[in-house]
Design goal:
The chain is of the alpha/beta class. It is 32% helix and 22% strand. The chain is built from five helices and six strands; from the N terminus they run βαβαββαβαβα.
């Protein structure tokens, strides 16, 4: 095990609420332990698999369109749960996370640990900004993702730069 932790913010900042993944990655820059890899992806499965190659833990941040929609509602899912929910929710991308996870499993390229933090979204129109419900829920989503990253690093309560007990 390498101890490599990767956070992938899936989405497009130019498409309104679809920019929630990239917004979380940007907000995490000073909040996660050193060595955490923060990256953004358009969600294309082959690129996603390349981004998490060699990782021990992967945290994916994704925008979801659910029916009926509840913009700003947060979901934390395992890889299996995310794949199973793909029928009831839709990624904002051509191929959803479910297809990506199925491909990874077929190719034996799922990371040992993967968690998905997803937010239900409203407006994904080109040129739109984050909607009010998504902007309001963004701090809680950032907190959840930061906690998952610290847990993956084995640092439950200490964000990057925090002073803690010295040995």
């Amino acid at each position: 095990m390498t101890g490599r932790v990767v956070v992938i913010g899936v989405g497009n900042a130019l498409r309104g609420d679809d920019g929630v993944g990239p917004a979380v990655v940007e907000a995490l820059r000073s909040r996660v332990p050193d060595g955490t890899i923060l990256t953004v992806s358009d969600g294309e499965p082959a690129r996603m698999l390349d981004l998490w190659r060699g990782a021990d833990a992967v945290v994916v941040v994704e925008a979801l369109r659910a029916h009926p929609a509840s913009p700003g509602e947060l979901h934390t899912l395992t890889a299996g749960e995310a794949a199973a929910r793909s029928g009831g929710t839709a990624s904002t991308h051509a191929l959803g996370l479910g297809e990506c996870l199925a491909l990874a499993e077929a190719l034996d390229r799922l990371p040992p640990r993967l968690v998905v933090h997803a937010m239900e979204v409203a407006d994904v129109q080109l040129g739109a900004r984050l909607s009010e419900p998504v902007r309001s829920a963004l701090p809680e989503l950032v907190d959840r993702v930061a906690a998952s990253v610290r847990q993956a690093h084995g640092k439950e309560h200490e964000p990057h730069g925090a002073e803690g007990p010295q040995a």
